[in-house]
Write a structure and sequence with these properties.
Elements: H1 4-11, H2 17-27, H3 31-36, H4 39-47, E1 57-60, E2 69-73, E3 79-83, E4 90-93, H5 94-111, H6 116-136, H7 149-160, H8 163-170, E5 171-173, E6 179-181, E7 188-189, H9 193-207, E8 217-225, E9 236-243, E10 250-257, H10 264-267, H11 277-288, E11 297-301, E12 304-310, H12 327-347, H13 357-365, H14 370-396
Helix pairs in contact: 5-6, 5-14, 6-12, 6-13
Length: 401
């Protein structure tokens, strides 16, 4: 069998080399960053576990972890906190989503220095809240008016932020006096003139199909965008568009290439036929989230499928490092994440091969699968640390150069 570094290198072999190198650099920071960048390893290993507790087939986001929850502006212009990454989404056993989240709790909390006793309590809490809401059988949602604790504070702060503040942070005045994207070689990177011209033309054509934007906005700048960990190395662009009637108003557009789900070779569940990978991502996001991000749609650029939406700041996620010594605050966030996970599965139940809500309700009431799942998540978190050490040694030795 191939080594961990070989498996990682093979999986990423079709991605853009420059940005894949950046992905490896970020993965080398700590075991949790490594875990976020190796979804494919997790599910390949899980698919080979004998006797893993069976569960109903449902829609899953595919890469659920502590940092794949966040705030975003919905298409109704209100702010929501929910699951927010569906690149790996597909039909799979419901517990596959849960066990990845549980493993992220063990791995992520240890990476920021939370003691093992509290980590176990946090993991137990997530599973208890998830199953109790699943057993109720009614999806819920979270917004500023219904949130508690630091999530409420977080959402209140985001609600006060204006779109122009985000634009101001990501732009600067160019030599011609016009606003342009700020190339900081951290979030935004330059692209060649031909690609930039083609992107602007494409965005302008796409906006003519969007009633909210048609005849009101024009694309004025574009660059390569870096965000997240697992998706680094795929093509992703940021675009700046200007209101034609009020030149002081701008929007930022995110355009991300959609590739096949990393779970697909391992899940063993028949999947629907999609028009494109972007169509898969958007369809699953639309059925799992209560309210979708503004401008969420698909597009085809230079023969490749992309998910396109209004850009959301990468900072709009809970920073667990700032609350690592406040167990009650962490517990409150984890409770929210648990009921949102259950709600997303219930909301999408019965669609295109997914189990009906009654099957998920029965899963929530069944106590027999919880202990084996917790034990596996704890064992696999130890495996993540070992795999990270193997990766880090190979990274330092130049294997990924």
């Amino acid at each position: 069998m191939s080594t961990v570094p070989q498996r990682i290198k093979q999986f990423n072999s079709t991605r853009l080399p420059t940005y894949t190198a950046l992905k490896y650099q970020i993965m080398a920071e700590d075991p949790f960053r490594f875990f976020r960048g190796t979804c494919h390893l997790f599910y390949e290993d899980l698919s080979q576990v004998p006797g893993f507790p069976p569960s109903p087939i449902t829609w899953i986001s595919g890469d659920l972890h502590l940092e794949n929850f966040g705030t975003y502006k919905g298409d109704n212009r209100l702010i929501y906190f929910d699951l927010n990454d569906f690149d790996e989404g597909l039909l799979a056993p419901a517990t596959w989503e849960v066990v990845r989240m549980m493993t992220s709790i063990f791995t992520g909390c240890e990476s920021i220095g939370i003691n093992k006793k509290e980590i176990r309590q946090i993991a137990d809490l997530f599973l208890r809240i998830y199953t109790s809401h699943l057993a109720i059988g009614k999806p819920r949602y979270l917004e500023a008016e219904t949130a508690n604790g630091i999530v409420r504070t977080f959402l209140d702060r985001i609600c006060l932020r204006k779109q122009k503040e985000l634009v101001r942070q990501r732009t600067e005045e160019g030599k011609n006096g016009r606003l342009q994207l700020r190339i900081d070689h951290l979030r935004f990177f330059p692209i060649d003139k031909t690609l930039r011209k083609d992107l602007l033309t494409h965005i302008n054509q796409w906006m003519q199909q969007v009633p909210l934007l048609k005849g009101r906005y024009v694309a004025i700048d574009a660059c390569f965008r870096v965000a997240g960990t697992g998706s680094l190395g795929v093509r992703r662009y940021g675009c700046l568009v200007r209101n034609t009637k009020d030149p002081k108003k701008h929007l930022l557009i995110d355009m991300k290439e959609a590739q096949p789900s990393a779970l697909l070779p391992w899940v063993g569940v028949p999947q629907p036929s999609w028009a494109s990978e972007a169509g898969r991502v958007v369809a699953i996001q639309q059925r799992m989230q209560n309210i979708n991000p503004a401008l969420l749609s698909t597009t085809l650029f230079q023969g490749l499928p992309y998910v396109i939406k209004e850009m959301q700041p990468t900072a709009d996620k809970i920073d667990f490092l700032t609350v690592k010594d406040r167990y009650k605050d962490i517990a409150c966030v984890v409770e929210d994440m648990a009921f949102l996970t259950a709600s997303a599965q219930l909301r999408s139940a019965g669609r295109q091969g997914a189990a009906v809500p009654d099957a998920l309700i029965d899963l929530g009431k069944d106590p027999n699968w919880k202990a084996p799942l917790l034990d596996y998540a704890l064992r696999y978190a130890r495996q993540v640390k070992k795999d990270y050490q193997d990766f880090f040694a190979a990274y330092k030795a130049g294997f990924f150069s």
